[in-house]
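Its record is set out here:
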Amino acid sequence: MTINIEYETEIELNIPYEDIIKSVINESIDYEKCPYEAEVNVILTDNNEIHQINKEHRAVDSPTDVLSFPMVDYENPSDFEGIEDKSEDYFNPDTGELMLGDIVISVEKVIEQAQQYGHSIKRELAFLVAHSMMHLFGYDHMVPAEAEIMEAKQNEVLNNLGIFR
């Protein structure tokens, strides 16, 4: 398991953010029954940087809390069947790990939203990682039925870790 975390902002998170991120990623991978060792990259940044990324990749001219860049094209969410047939696309040739994708999180939004929703910074960071991990497994929330499934899964991951609102 490789979890790369890059902290690219001067804004400080005064919590053990690496431990939180790693525990949520590991729990998400176990929860979705990923049969492979996996690789996930996480970048913690600020509103200005995530605004630029959002504008470049989604044509949305504003900052957001989290962006997910899945590396795997699933037939159905968390359907790992046939992935090995595309090993050159999905597996790191150096480690053999499944490259799930990249997560970009605005530290500013983590702090703002924790205050806005009345819960801890730890809970907000963990929620954004769990949410993004579900995207890396192919889930989405564009229609209500899919949103319900995704929300239930990310909440179960957090509950399994004892991270509550």
